[in-house]
Write a structure and sequence with these properties.
binds magnesium ion, binds adenosine-5'-diphosphate, alpha/beta, 19 helices
Amino acid sequence: MKKLLKYMDGYKIQCILGPIFKALEAIFELFIPLVVKNIIDVGIANSDKPYIFKMVGLLIVLAVVGLSSTLVAQYFAARAACGFSAKLRGALFSHTQSLSYSELDTLGTSSLITRMTSDVNQVQNGVNMFLRLFSRSPFIVFGAMIMAARIDPKVTWIFAATIILLLIVVFSIMAITVPLHKKVQNKLEKTVLLTKENLAGVRVVRALSREAEEETAYNEYNRAMTKALNRAGKVSAVMNPLTYAIVNVGIIALVYNGALSVEASLISQGAVIALYNYMSQILIELVKLANLIVTVTKALASASRIEHTLEEKNSLTYGNEDICTGTVEFKDVALKYKNGGEPAVSGISFFAGKGESVGIIGGTGSGKSTVVNMISRFYDASEGEVLIDGKDIKRFSQNALREKIGVVPQRSVLFRGTVAQNMRMGAPDASDEDIISSLKTAQAYDFIAERGGLDADVEGSGKNFSGGQKQRLCIARALIKKPSILILDDSTSALDFATDANLRKAIRELECSPTLFIVSQRAASVMHADKIIVLDRGEPIDIGTHKELLDRCDVYKEIYYSQFRKDKEASV
Ligand code: ADP
Ligand code: MG
């Protein structure tokens, strides 16, 4: 929590004024039983109506002043809490943006979402409640006790005993419920993860008829969470009857003691009523305090999770050199993912000259994406060297890597807006002509023109485009930067063969002649490349041209002939 306090900067005044007004409210409240006492002892005892009206007026004034301080306090506390949480959420968001793939893998998207939503809300609640109650509760509890002692010193022990008993009950109940609430929070996170996966993959789940299994898994988590919540609820339910019983026993003692004292004319009748009122105030306050502590404990747990996320630092450091030619060389490279056991790829060595095209082919999970992700430095090689322009990739600036390397990832991602807005994401200054020429190269201009050109709407995640259209738009977006290195990671998989071939031809004719990496499972997409790397289970089986591989590489032959009939050579 300490490290998060810096986001409270700018709200210091609110943090001081809130509790001060809350304390004022408490003081006004403490006066009320005294006024009531006077109404009874002076007003009613002497049948002094004007006095009674005066005192009732005073009660109303106390109520209005008390309410005003409450409103002011509430306002300051809410301002501070909301401002704080807004800053915190912003900080989390920009921090996540700065993390590398490796850290994002470790943290996980769904945890990040929970951090930014439910955890931040929890902390906001905690701050709000804390600012409102931490000054009020001690004031009321000890204030009421002192006031009571002033009315009748003999009852101090009744108050002390009741408060101690109440504290014991409240804190033992909390000792049980707080860990339960933590458990619920963890379960909630798992449920969010499951929900997210299921919603994202709802088509796959249905296509594979796995609804029943998914539902069972989901219900299991849901049930476990409900169980924990139920237990916490049951234990908390004991709190009210127990505390009320204790307070009522205290009140009986007070009234009994009061009756004797009144009879002996030691204290007045009004004093007994005042004592009774102070006792009730203490009860209510302690129950509130218990709630405050539960909220604050939850908030602290959330805060420590947020802190943990903010502490996760980008492990990549960058140099300041720029990419010129765009040659790429791998020297015996291996990559082991942080959360994976075995290296995902190993022993990768190849050289790609300026303007050359390299095909990478292999089955799913063979490590194709892993290899190209090291060129754009989404991940750093765990072993071996990755060189661009003959220099270690770590010597380039982040900007150079982003500007000069065009990556079209396996999953096409478009954002809500217009086509032009999407296209300008990588190059804000691109002219309409640039965009059109990129769209043409990417074979995307025709269907965009049909939809009204660059201002055509793109719905969230590009829902209003087909898979192949999305892929071509993503390729166009990568081309606008005129990259020195272009990576197409399985990004033509949804295109028909002819469009795919036209696209490759258009890219080869580009003026910037990028070094081209084509990742695919289709032989047709890579067969015209200058070099083809055949991957199998993370190992490079062979590197060569289509002809060479067809002669000597069994895996390549197998892939090729599974897609083209032996007797009929592909004519693309
Ligand atoms: P391909 O692109 O050929 O389908 P990938 O390069 O995506 O294959 O994956 C290769 C292997 O690395 C797979 O076994 C996959 O499980 C693993 N892998 C890929 N990405 C990650 C990741 N972010 N964290 C852990 N393991 C991963
Ligand atoms: Mg892949």
